Fold this sequence. Notes:
Elements: H1 4-29, H2 37-53, E1 77-79, E2 89-90, H3 93-107, E3 114-121, E4 124-131, E5 134-140, E6 146-148, H4 151-155, E7 174-183, H5 185-197, H6 206-214, H7 219-223, E8 227-237, H8 245-254, E9 264-267, H9 269-282, E10 290-297, H10 300-306, E11 316-320, E12 324-337, E13 342-354, E14 357-363, H11 367-373, E15 380-385, E16 392-396, E17 422-423, E18 430-431, H12 441-449, H13 461-469, H14 484-487, H15 495-508, E19 510-512, H16 513-520, H17 527-537, H18 541-546, H19 549-553, H20 560-571, H21 573-584, E20 588-590, E21 605-609, H22 617-626, E22 630-632, E23 641-644, H23 650-657, E24 662-663, H24 665-672
Parallel strand pairs: 2-11, 19-20, 21-22, 21-23, 23-24
Antiparallel strand pairs: 1-6, 3-9, 3-10, 4-5, 4-7, 7-8, 10-11, 12-13, 12-15, 13-14, 13-18, 15-16, 17-18
Bound molecules: 2-(butylsulfanyl)adenosine.
The site of 2-(butylsulfanyl)adenosine has 15 residues, from β3, β8 and β11.
Amino acid sequence: MGSKPLMDILNKIRALRKQIRDHNYRYYVLDDPVISDGEYDALLRELESLETQHPEFISSDSPTQRVGSTPLSKFESVPHRTPMLSLSNAMNTEELLVFDERVQKGLGVSKKIEYVAEPKLDGLGVELIYENGVFISGSTRGDGFTGEDITQNLRTIRSLPLRLRTEFLPAPSLLEVRGEVFISKAGFQSLNKTRELSGEPLFANPRNAAAGSLRQLDSTITADRPLSVYCYQPGVVKGKSYANHSSFLRDLKNWGFPVNPLIRTVNGIDAAVAYHRDMEAKRNDLPYEIDGTVFKVNSSSYQDELGFRSRSPKWAIAGKFKAQQATTTILDIAAQVGRTGAVTPVATFEPVFVGGVTVTHATLHNQDEIDRKDIRVGDTVLIERAGDVIPKVVKVILEKRTGDSQPYMLPAQCPSCGHPIYRSEDETVMRCQYLSCPAQIRGRIEHFVSKNAMDIDGIGNKLVDQFVEAELVKTVNDLFTLSYEDLLPLERMADKSARNILNAINASKKTTFAKFLYAVGIRNVGEHLSKVLEKYFQGDFQRFMETSAEELETIYEVGKIVADGIVRFWSDSENIRVVESCFRSGVELVDVQTSLEDQRFSGMTFVFTGSLEIFTRKDAGEMVEKRGGRSSGSVSKKTNYVVAGPGAGSKLKKAESLDIPVLSEKEFLELLI
Ligand code: IVH
């Protein structure tokens, strides 16, 4: 074997990559493809097969490398070299004029200022880092100083160049670019349609959908989401300086970045105001959501002269749009029960076109909100869409109220199961707490079988749906009476999987007080509190069910709201019946290993931050809990210790500012032994 054939292969691979990159650019950035999808796929397959035969030639910027293979266990935090600032807002024209006056005053000039006018996309700000023209990493904005490393997910965005086009313009050694990741209106619609069909919860708006997609630890999920990006701002750029913002944007385009084609330079604030009005008039016709405009002083020397406020530049402003409003009449108000038992009043109204979509429903949130706004069936109301598909009722137009309307009251019973609904002191929302309420049963079962609850392997959400649809499981206890014959007819169920599931169900019956209690799902009784109660009741569930609120309140960490919630839960005799039937079906609460002896961290809260080297964060947390303490994700005055590893950021700072003792991992270890 000479080296020539290998060289040939490498050259072929390089040529294919370039071709695919060019087609990507034409398709995703210029929106002007020159080959068919089929031809494109053929090129990609050819490259994939060469790379499979020669894995030594795979490089991170190859178009085949858009989806990382191993899901992450968490996102690492990454500091931004320069903070990612936000923008101050102008709520109306007047405030735009004031901004311009301030700019002129700050510069000591009295003349028309040149601005770059940009649509303000309603997505998520990200930072992209390129070294010598190759995409290296990317992160979320986070708190502006530190973000999360979402490189794997950003790679999946097809319009994002993994390697810059450098035919006409060399790449700087370091290029940081900021931009907005978003989902188009059409992409949002189709994503929600797919989710509806598969029974997954819907996203409220394109922004949430984009955020949810970027937050996936498994980038193959992100790859299936219709994410786009527009770049609009430099971070650190090494070896290149710009006289103005528009020339930076021009370079971005030359390097192959997607840059919003609606960006203009405008001369003077009047032209900026005209641009703002034009965008506001166009917003419903744009393929993506924008919530305003952004104006940036074009000249870099002016930008430098103006400088920054603490969190935003003085040389830029966001012009906000007015909320999109319309009036309509309320046809009906109905109470709906959500998966977690929240009973929410929902208004149906005469369909009305607002903000580019026809809307028919609005949540009225809770009884307080209805009372405060005095919303009644038959009323004419002003509604508003603020990015969300579901609009909100701003107010009732009282002048249009007809004489015979009645104030609306939520029913006293759950519309799904008829059990009484209650309102806890800490909430405005009403809830149904019945364990077997049909509206909640899916969610209840999903929780019941989950890892930290009964830990029944092999029962995913799809199977839960089938159980409920086939009416095999109406209450959590029905899981324990499932038979082989019940399971076999279900979709995608074979002999082996049915047996495995039955075995898993059987094995789960031997559990602990804490896991079972957590599985039952009493509001505010999470994993930690379940363990606290387990210790207090020493595994005696019967006694726990009969305990008074007064006694519960004597337990450290159990407050009045939790105690009342527990007593209320057991005041529904059908909840007791379900739990007792679980015991009759063989659920057995075995002794917990946690001994009552070593409670050295009783009542203490630990926060772990930065990267740990000796323990995983989960193990460290468990060791604290075993000794009677708890671990929390955020630092507050109540935190006793912060254990900080390398790379600790904002939590460490907060601990220092609150004078909370900070331990190294080693010092923490010493506390344990
Ligand atoms: S520039 C120093 N330009 O709006 C200037 N931001 O409220 C920093 N945004 O965090 C931002 N479109 O996520 C800029 N054309 C645009 C934008 C834009 C949307 C977002 C961005 C930023 C937020 C500030």
